[in-house]
UniProtKB/TrEMBL annotation:
Transmembrane segments: none
Gene Ontology biological-process annotations: methylation
Keyword Methyltransferase part of the UniProt annotation: yes
Annotated protein name in UniProt: protein-glutamate O-methyltransferase
Highest taxon of source: Bacteria
Length: 278
């Protein structure tokens, strides 16, 4: 196997070829300052396949008849995720959005979409927060669709087993109530089975996903990887997927201000919300 350190960073020409491929397959736009990051991630596949350089790997991808394109996209798109990340979004969901949506769609099953769900922390976190909210707003049915382009992270999410940094911000009483430590490894905590059953995980490209009839969509820290025109396409898809009165949550570093969308912007003490009118 070729030593990791013996494989240099890719050239700008090589970077451009891979960046174009990533954009075509995943819609993600990588800027040139990401050249070292991309080099490091693709090195992992070079070592696994015992290939000598990036050009050989690129040609291998072009002629791929198996699952290497899946492995490639997983390596270059996977990002860190953890429970109780940006809790203002969940607080806004419980205090502002839920009472309004439940009143408008009284008696109906609440449908949510976790778009770009990564390793599953967000949809599980959503399910837990919804159940906890029933203490104040009363019982309601709900289901969550969770999608990601990576087969590997979706499989990880379906298992629902977490440890270390991924769970360190979970309040102790929540961890005890909704997770169970594994018998053979008590440092690993598994989400309760009844919580898992509330979530449908799918491997899908966001630009090809087809969920509809949604009341709430979470797509946080995902659009930062796309060009503005692609963000507009994606946001328009979210608008069509939402029912009238539904809400879109995006990351705090993201904004729809420059996209000229049909969403109404609502300012709250817990952050900016985006509502589909109707």
């Amino acid at each position: 196997m070729i030593p990791f350190s013996d494989i240099p960073d890719m050239t700008t020409v090589q970077f451009d070829r891979f960046a174009k491929l990533i954009h075509e397959r995943a819609g993600i736009h990588l800027k040139e300052h990401k050249i070292t990051l991309l080099s490091n991630r693709i090195r992992k596949r070079l070592r696994t396949l015992n290939m000598k350089d990036y050009d050989e790997y690129y040609q291998f991808l072009q002629n791929d008849k198996g699952n290497e394109m899946v492995h490639f996209l997983e390596v270059v798109t996977t990002n860190e995720s953890y429970f109780w990340r940006t809790t203002q979004n969940y607080d806004a969901l419980k205090t502002h959005v839920l009472p309004e949506v439940l009143k408008q769609y009284r008696g109906q099953e609440l449908k949510l979409w976790s778009a770009g769900c990564s390793t599953g922390e967000e949809p599980y976190n959503l399910a837990i927060e919804l159940i906890e909210s029933m203490r104040k707003v009363g019982f309601f049915n709900f289901r969550i669709v969770a999608t990601d382009i990576s087969t590997r992270v979706v499989q990880f999410a379906q298992e629902g087993r977490y440890t270390g940094r991924k769970i360190e911000k979970i309040p102790p009483e929540i961890l005890k109530r909704y997770f169970k430590p594994l018998t053979d490894d008590p440092e690993v905590f598994e989400v309760r089975d009844d919580i898992k059953k509330k979530i449908e995980f799918r491997v899908e490209n966001l630009f090809q996903s087809t969920p509809s009839g949604m009341h709430v969509i979470f797509c946080r820290n995902v659009m930062i990887y796309f060009k503005r025109e692609e963000q507009k396409v994606l946001v328009d898809r979210f608008h069509r997927a939402l029912l009238p009165g539904g809400y879109l949550f995006i990351g705090h570093a993201e904004s729809l201000q420059m996209l000229n969308t049909d969403f109404r912007t609502i300012s709250t003490p817990l952050g900016i919300l985006y509502r589909k009118e109707g």
